[in-house]
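Re-run requested by the PI after the first attempt was lost when the workstation crashed. Everything re-entered from the original request form. Ligand of interest: 2-acetamido-2-deoxy-beta-D-glucopyranose.
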Amino acid sequence: MVLKVLAFLALVSVMVNSQQPAFNDDVLGLIFFKAGLKDPNAKLQSWSSDDNDPCNWTGVKCDPVTYRVTELHLDDLSLSGHVGRGLLRLQFLQALSLSKNNLTGTINSELSHIGSLRVIDLSGNSLSGSIPDKFFAQFGSLKSVSFAGNKLTGHLPGSLSSCSTLVEANFSFNRISGQLPSGIWFLRSLKSLDVFGNLMEGEIHEGIGNLYDLRLINFGNNRFSGKIPGDIGSCLQLKYVDFSDNYLYGTLPDSMRRLVSCRSISLQGNSLSGQVSDWIGELTSLESLDLSANNFSGGIPSSLGNLQLLRELNLSMNLLIGYFPSWISGNELMGSLQVLDLSSNDLYGEIGSKIGVLSSLVFFNMSRNHLFGSIPYSIGELKTTQVIDLSYNLLNGSIPSELGGAVSLKELRLQMNFLSGKIPIQIVNCSSLTVLNLSWNNLSGSIPPATSNLSSLEYVDLSSNDLTGSLPKELANLSLLMFFNVSHNNLHGELPVGGFFNTISASSVSGNPSLCGSVVNRSCPAVHNKPIVLNPNSSDSIGGSFPNHHRKKIVLSISSLIAIGAAAFIVIGVVAITVLNIHVRSSMSSAPVSLALSGGEDFSCSPNNDSNYGKLVMFSGDADFAAGAHALLNKDCELGRGGFGVVYRTILRDGRSVAIKKLTVSSLIKSQDEFEKDVKKLGKVRYHNLVALEGYYWTPSLQLLIYEFVSSGSLYKHLHDPGRSCLSWRQRFHVILGTAKGLAYLHRMNIIHYNLKSTNVLIDCSGEPKVGDFGLARLLPMLDRCVLSSKIQSALGYMAPEFACKTVKITEKSDVYGYGVLVLEVITGKKPVEYMEDDVVVLCDMVRGALEDGRVEECIDGRLRGNFPAEEAIPVIKLGLICASQVPSNRPDMEEVVNILELIQCPSEGQDELE
Ligand SMILES: *[C@@H]1O[C@H](CO)[C@@H](O)[C@H](O)[C@H]1NC(C)=O
Ligand SMILES: *[C@@H]1O[C@H](CO)[C@@H](O)[C@H](O)[C@H]1NC(C)=O
Ligand SMILES: *[C@@H]1O[C@H](CO)[C@@H](O)[C@H](O)[C@H]1NC(C)=O
Ligand SMILES: *[C@@H]1O[C@H](CO)[C@@H](O)[C@H](O)[C@H]1NC(C)=O
Ligand SMILES: *[C@@H]1O[C@H](CO)[C@@H](O)[C@H](O)[C@H]1NC(C)=O
Ligand SMILES: *[C@@H]1O[C@H](CO)[C@@H](O)[C@H](O)[C@H]1NC(C)=O
Ligand SMILES: *[C@@H]1O[C@H](CO)[C@@H](O)[C@H](O)[C@H]1NC(C)=O
């Protein structure tokens, strides 16, 4: 009402002065417009109806020739009220900018009657309602429109698609819903389209490729679904792509490889999947790449190392596997990298020792992977790094003292690893340190007193370590401290007094039996103010005054018990190993005995002078076949058949059982010399998780290999024979670990197994797995893949993909693949490939799928009836999947597998076994 009266008065005063010649519609319009506004800071004071030259008014610009108002810039003036109709009088207005005020009401559809408008900026107000349907229908030359940061609802009007002059449109930060107008990709002049932060839905349809000039597209934070449009790569000018936080799925369209001008790609927070392809390294203008929080799988392409301008790389929260990328550390090209976040993936391996070359790194997060090994010294070369988060990995070793070189460090998070040793005193050089979390490690020693000089500290968590010594009193001077947890250590003495420590909670210091102070409800001997009166007749009073003494004694005795127990165990272990060593040495040193034996297929025992004489070599002991050679290849004694031959059992005269393998690949065998050389090499392999080769027999037409006999049959039988009792979780873990050790040993001896499968893993009477049948492919004249894969075709499902690919070398990593499959087989109780009625189930794929769906526990053998520690089972499954990676280089080597398994093994469970 008041406004209307004002407007009326203004109009009257304009009328009164109307004899002035310069008076025109513009003054009338502006005064009318002002009348609809509230101007608390009197910013529009100069707008006076007494003055009929509006060209000098605040925020008004005129054409220098015609003196007509062409631009209105009233940004950030705290104006409120409505965008009034007065503006419609400004027939030559080209730019209307009213951003960052507090304007309310709806968008006036009549604005489109100002045909001259080129720029409209109403962003940062409180406009509501929807954008009028026909709003964009009439503009003749509109180039830029922004309604960003209002409270607009409804749909984007279809008329938008007909505004062919449009270059920039910004509707971000509203509550606009509905789908994109269908003709939007006809806006050929469009360079920038921003609808970030709305409620828009539906698919982002193809056709975007029409927009040759598009530089920026921001559809982030909406509800778009479907795939990234496949023709997006035709927008060759694109510099900035943001589709983050939508419901997009599918893979990265290949056409994206053409976006070579692109500086920033943000696709985080969708459900995109598949591999991050190698072509990503062709986008050499990239400065920022965020693919985090998706379902990307496979390895991290090393081509990322080519992106010299890359400043931010966020691949966190995906299903990426493989080693810590070697191109990151030791790649001088990555010198511009500031943010590196690879957290929450399935990466493993050691942090590259040359990580220090990342000379611009500010933020470094590798948390929640499976990194092992120690923290590299070169971490101290990260002079600009503010955040280092390596928490939730398998790191061991000590925190390097070089860390003190990371002088910009504000956050150091190393919790949940296996770090040992002391907290390096050099940490005091990190004088900006605000957050220090070293909890849940095996750190020992005392808390460096100089820690209290780190005056920026706000959050300190050292809980659950083996820290000893007392808490430095000066810690109480840390004035910004808000969290301080040292619970579950072996700290003693008095709690600091004052500052934060006056209000510290008991749980933050609990679990330190020798700490004293009022918080822990234990008085400290030294601070007793009252004189202590000792009653010589009462032992109680002494105990009462020094309650912690008692406790200390108990603690001591428990810890000494543990120490004694451990020592005893170590002694037993040493003795056992020594005995084993002596045994092995003596059996190896006994010279091979050569015996003559008939080589005819009939195996008559009587030696004759036939040229067909064979040669029998035993690497140790006696070679008398008790049952005579007749029994040798008797069908009744057959133990099994494999790709390389048939296996029989027989008993030596000394009562020892042996397994004899008759090679069925005779025609392919090498010359005798080479055969003997190779077999002798295999004979040298002695390891308790490997089936020992005891000897061999040679004739040109027949070759036998004589193996140690392993009593309890194959792993295959234990897993899949319906008659067998089910293996417990612990037995399975034992088999998985033992098999890994066996393979690791083989690889150390430079022997590739070539044929790992559950029928080739034997179990002895004490449940120890022994890997057999190794290295036989060496006996073939050449490693012909065809022969090889036909020989081991029974190993279907275990065979690494490179067997099918002639260009990839077969290496130890091919064994790792088979091992990965075997792990999954042991855990699920399912065969690597199972044939259903009209379906083939490939175990790896099935488990991988279940893992991605978050229901991996359902894969675990039902016969275990939930009787397994999930914290072991799930990492083991992941390890199995990593081993069964398609790309050989993504597979760990067996040595690492053994290390990882030993770390995975629950400590308590491990102990059970020792008892
Ligand atoms: C514009 O306003 C300024 C003071 O705000 C004054 O000095 C100047 O003379 C005015 N110009 C015209 C053309 O009115
Ligand atoms: C904008 O106006 C609304 C109501 O009209 C008021 O609540 C709010 O505080 C104002 N905001 C500013 C920044 O003036
Ligand atoms: C759109 O407007 C918002 C809010 O004013 C701004 O932050 C954003 O940068 C604008 N988008 C473009 C592409 O200029
Ligand atoms: C990954 O995919 C699974 C289903 O395949 C889904 O449940 C999960 O939410 C996805 N994760 C992300 C981050 O999209
Ligand atoms: C990386 O992405 C994740 C998930 O989108 C996010 O939580 C995290 O803050 C990002 N890291 C950095 C350094 O921005
Ligand atoms: C590092 O990443 C993990 C997992 O993605 C996250 O929980 C943690 O907050 C991140 N660390 C920092 C310092 O942002
Ligand atoms: C770290 O663990 C690996 C096995 O994972 C072991 O070989 C190495 O000796 C350990 N290092 C330290 C310092 O404990």
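Saved to the shared folder this time. Residues 1-22, 527-612, 626-631, 910-915 have pLDDT under 50 and may be disordered.
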